[in-house]
Amino acid sequence: MDELNLKTLEQIPIPEGLEERLSKKIDEWEREGQRAKRHTIRPRALRYMAAAACIALVFGVGFHLLNQYSETNLAEQDTYQDPVKAQQEAERALNMLAINLNKGMGLLERAKALSDQTEQSFNEKLKVMK
């Protein structure tokens, strides 16, 4: 059976210029593959640079906060020698904590309201689909 198919295939005439057209198409595919490789190198390099920049930023902010924390600790040690100043400093810190906590709670309430509204509309759409 294989011999029959081979003989039949040999009898089929090959169109003129087929070999040239096939080689041109193969060359086009190779060029497209090379272009695709060039395009994938650039985004990879950008990803690595972005990751390195993020790491540098995190270390920079951490270093800055560490220095700032150590400077404020040295400056605040003097206020604890006087009880009145220590009380004022403690009240100021507690007020700042209360203000920031209230801001956070307000944001949390807004997020919960939005979540509840989204859940309600989602449930309504599910009921409509049933």
The number of E-state strands comes to 0
Task: Estimate percent helicity.
Answer: over 70%
Amino- and carboxy-terminal Cα gap? 59 Å
- Topology as a string of helices (H) and strands (E): HHH
As an assembly, this protein is single chain
Residue windows where pLDDT falls under 50 for at least 5 positions:
none
Largest sheet: none
Structural class: mainly alpha
Tell me the overall shape. elongated
Overall pLDDT level = 82
Number of helices: 3
Rg result = 36 Å
In words, what does this structure look like?
- The protein is built from 3 helices and no strands.
- By secondary structure, it is an all-alpha fold.
- The model has no long low-confidence stretch (mean pLDDT 82).
- It has helices at residues 2-11, 18-76, 83-129.
Quick overview of this protein structure:
By secondary structure, the chain is mainly α. The chain has three helices and no strands.
Question: How would the blueprint of this fold be written?
Answer:
Blueprint: H1 2-11, H2 18-76, H3 83-129
Sum up the structure in keywords.
130 residues, mainly alpha, 3 helices
